[in-house]
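Q: Please design a sequence for this.
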């Protein structure tokens, strides 16, 4: 997709091939010629989604389609893209264009489909002739989704209109045509048809489209952000640095400082830490396991895990989720196995990454990151999870869920990995914490250290239990509060 946006200026002043013929940038065409162009670049969006779309880019076997976001935004089932030759392709990825009613879709095909020529509506004034096309939903007369083409007039321009609908024009648009192309007199794409205004008395009084240059501006901004130095940096901070050496080195210099007064004083200094260090290990909450530290992964699971880690890096630096598979793969050098289709779906508080096998005898994977319940994009602390389908399927697996500090895989999937951001892991284990742990054990209490160390069943730690239940990561305030509470409960009670 990046190649398309980077060559837009050249396209606007030059020529572009559509199908088997070429259109000059300034050549006016007959309406019948424009209709032929529109029919070659317009697709049907069907299934659980109902609308139209226009092919705007081809890169190898990857085609990009632009449509109205409301066509695909609220779907919960499967959607398909039907091309002019009657072929149908399952839709795996839909990306919202910010602050517009536009969405970018993708499908893969070895077929040769026409691609729209980029245009601009800047010079279109009220009275100018334009054209829009699409595939209306079936009606009482036409029971199939048949191609429809309208020649209309521009009625007004509304700068700063909601969702980008700045272009208004006449005509009789029907449901199902949303997302179709709006073309000028030379067959160039100048907008995306999206809405019709209907009033109770007059009926349909006008149509609205999003100018194509608004889309180009949004995509140009996104491309600059993805190419920024911060976004290009490798995800070096995803794997948390091992915190183990820090506490190990701290006790080492301690005995070296005590022998200065007298050699005899070393023995009690050495014996004293022995009973104290054992309960410290019992109090320590379990270290969350990084995604990459698990057993050997399949290529698809490895790719999903890499996408999740890269997404965590991207959102921590850019305060936004990256919702394009080609972009995340290129930015973070992720190798995607060819026997899987990959897709990303983003929400306001998370991102879902899918690996869907092309063969029905392989398992699908889903990896997700979520903003912590008390976090937001201005302070993006996240939790993540990777799940594997329990049986071989070649459809999108159920999404993981996160709420009330509970992170879980969807029905029909098994947990593969769960982790949190390294920043959270480090915050939850400050260096001074071990030194503060002897404080809740006063000398007046009867043998708590000996009882905790020697107990054959082990010491039950409230911190461990509560933090194990809270999969989102350990909160330092929670940990200190639980340690204080644990110091108030007799050791005999804790071991029952």
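A: Design:
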């Amino acid at each position: 997709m990046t190649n398309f946006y980077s060559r837009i200026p050249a396209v606007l002043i030059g020529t572009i091939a559509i199908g088997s013929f070429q259109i000059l940038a300034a050549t006016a065409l007959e309406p019948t010629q424009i209709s032929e162009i529109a029919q070659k670049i317009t697709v049907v969006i069907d299934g659980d989604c109902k609308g139209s779309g226009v092919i705007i880019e081809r890169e190898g076997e990857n085609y990009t389609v632009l449509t109205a976001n409301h066509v695909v935004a609220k779907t919960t089932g499967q959607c398909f893209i039907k091309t002019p030759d009657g072929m149908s392709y399952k839709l795996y990825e839909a990306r919202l264009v910010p602050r517009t009613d536009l969405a970018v879709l993708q499908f893969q095909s070895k077929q040769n489909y026409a691609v729209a020529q980029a245009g601009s509506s800047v010079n279109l004034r009220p009275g100018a002739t334009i054209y829009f096309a699409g595939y209306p939903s079936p009606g009482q007369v036409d029971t199939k989704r048949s191609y429809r083409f309208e020649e209309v007039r521009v009625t007004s321009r509304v700068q700063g209109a909601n969702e980008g609908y700045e272009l208004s024009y006449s005509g009789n648009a029907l449901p199902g045509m949303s997302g179709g192309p709006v073309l000028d007199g030379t067959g160039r794409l100048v907008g995306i048809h999206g809405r019709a205004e209907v009033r109770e008395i007059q009926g349909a009084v006008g149509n609205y489209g999003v100018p194509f240059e608004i889309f180009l501006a949004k995509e140009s901004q996104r491309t600059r952000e993805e190419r920024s130095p911060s976004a290009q940096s490798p995800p070096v901070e995803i794997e948390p640095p091992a915190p183990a050496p820090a506490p190990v080195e701290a006790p080492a210099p301690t005995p070296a400082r005590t022998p200065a007064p007298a050699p005899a004083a070393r023995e009690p200094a050495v014996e004293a830490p022995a009973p104290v260090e054992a309960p410290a290990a019992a109090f320590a909450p379990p270290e969350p396991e990084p995604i990459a530290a698990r057993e050997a992964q399949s290529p698809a699971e490895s790719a999903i895990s890499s996408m999740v880690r890269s997404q965590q890096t991207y959102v921590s630096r850019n305060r936004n989720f990256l919702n394009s598979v080609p972009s995340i793969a290129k930015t973070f050098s992720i190798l995607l196995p060819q026997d899987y289709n990959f897709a990303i779906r983003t929400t306001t508080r998370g991102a879902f990454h899918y690996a869907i096998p092309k063969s029905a005898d392989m398992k699908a994977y889903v990896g997700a990151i979520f903003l912590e319940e008390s976090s937001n994009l201005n302070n993006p602390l996240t939790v993540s999870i990777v799940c594997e389908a329990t049986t071989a399927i070649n459809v999108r697996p159920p999404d993981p869920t996160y709420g009330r500090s509970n992170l879980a895989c969807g029905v029909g999937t098994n947990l593969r990995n769960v982790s949190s951001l390294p920043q959270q892991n480090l915050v939850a284990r400050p260096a001074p914490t071990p030194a503060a742990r002897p404080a809740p054990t006063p000398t007046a209490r009867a043998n708590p250290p000996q009882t905790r160390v020697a107990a054959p069943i082990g010491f039950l730690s409230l911190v461990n239990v509560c933090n194990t239940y809270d999969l989102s990561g350990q909160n330092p305030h929670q940990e200190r509060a639980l340690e204080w509470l644990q110091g108030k409960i007799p050791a005999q009670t804790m071991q029952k």
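Q: Thanks. Anything notable?
A: Residues 122 and 213 are 8 Å apart (CA to CA). The longest strand covers residues 189-199.
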